[in-house]
Design brief:
161 residues; PH-domain like; 2 domains; three-stranded antiparallel β-sheet; 40% helix; elongated
Length: 161
């Protein structure tokens, strides 16, 4: 009786890139608060005191926008290729998990390219099913992932020995 070969060939965790670190965010918010406070005082002194509230509202809206942006960055995808299985695990920003399985022998990577030859979309396809992956990645990150993933699929299809 042949034994199952569950050799791990490839694993990748795809996550959205955020260029602003926590320290950068704090520095940005301190700058926004300082500018808003200074402008608010200037308007107060010339008698336009109702404008001060709008400066405070701007600070709150900017902070809320960044909070939502950082929350969205908690989403990620894990792609695992083993000799006998291909698994994609998608975790949303809210923590909801979806898992998709494919047979790596039949799965293929579909790549859509823009006119400038950069990758615009990646999908795993097999037996009429299609799954978009890495939609939040940039074109260069998609290129790198597609190369590594294609090599892993090739290894999964190769006859062991």
């Amino acid at each position: 009786m042949p034994q199952s070969d569950d050799t791990l060939l490839f694993t990748a965790r795809l996550s959205p890139h955020r260029s602003l670190s926590a320290a950068g965010f704090n520095l940005l918010m301190m700058t926004v608060v300082a500018v808003s406070f200074t402008a608010g005082i200037a308007f107060w002194l010339i008698g336009a005191w109702p404008v001060v509230g709008f400066f405070g509202l701007d600070v709150l809206l900017i902070q809320q926008a960044f909070r939502l942006n950082y929350r969205a960055a908690r989403a990620f995808e894990e792609v695992t290729v083993m000799r006998e299985s291909l698994t994609v695990r998608k975790v949303s920003a809210s923590g909801r998990v979806e898992e998709f399985g494919f047979n790596p022998y039949w799965a293929r990577l579909e790549i859509d390219r823009r006119p400038d030859r950069l990758i615009s979309r990646l999908r795993i396809a097999s037996h009429g099913r299609r799954l978009d992956i890495g939609s939040f990645l940039g074109p260069n990150e998609r290129e790198s992932f597609s190369n590594a993933f294609s090599v892993a699929l090739g290894k999964a299809r190769a006859v062991p020995g």
